[in-house]
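note to self — DONT lose this again. spent like an hour looking for the file last time. sequence + predicted structure for the chain T wanted, 204 res
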Amino acid sequence: MQNQQQQNFTNTAQLPPQQHFGGHDIFDAHEALSSLTSAVDQCVILEQNIQDPELQTMSQKHRAFCGQLYNTILDTFQTGQDPAVDTQSYKMDQSNDVVYGKQPPAQPSTPMQSANELNDQTISGFMMDSLKSAASSFTMASLEMTNPVLRRVLADSVPNLIEMAYEVFLYQNKHQYYQVPQLQQQDMQAFQQSYAPIQGTMPH
C-alpha cells in the first residue's frame, strides 16, 4: 500500500523542466498571459483613436514593453527554464508631481452610448484598468508558483506593471481625468498620528 502511494508522487528531479508545473500553476500562468494579452490588444485597438501625442507615445511604449514581456513569460512557460530574454525594467517618462484638489465636472459622467464618444480620458482609463488587472494576476500567480523560474519572472514583472499603471495615473491626474482630493489637515494628521511604533523590535 505504501509503495502504491509513493508511486502517485513525483519530485522535481524526476521530471523534465517543461513539466515542472503543478495544475494550479498552469491555470495561473494562463491567467497571467491572458491578462497581458488583453493589455496589448487594447493598445492595438485604441491607439488609432488617441488624440494626444503624449498618450499615443505612452501606449506604444507600453505595448512594446508588454510584447517583450509576453515573449519572456511564454518562453519560460513552455520550457520551464530561464528565458532567452530576461525581464527588463520599465522606466516611465512622467514626473512624480501630483496635483491635489477636486473640481466638480462640467456635467456628470455617464457610460458611453456610441463609439464616437471615445476620447483620451476613456482610453487612459482602459489602459489603467488593464494594467491593474495584469498586476493583480501576476501577483496572485507568483505567490503559489511551483516553478521557481516562472515565479521569479512573474514576481519581477509586477514592479514594471505598477510603474506603467502609475505613469498612466500621473498622466490622468495632470489632465484632471483623475482628481485627488485631500482630507483637511487636522483629519489627515489625526490618521497619521493614530499609530505608534513597536518598541524593542530590533534583533539582539
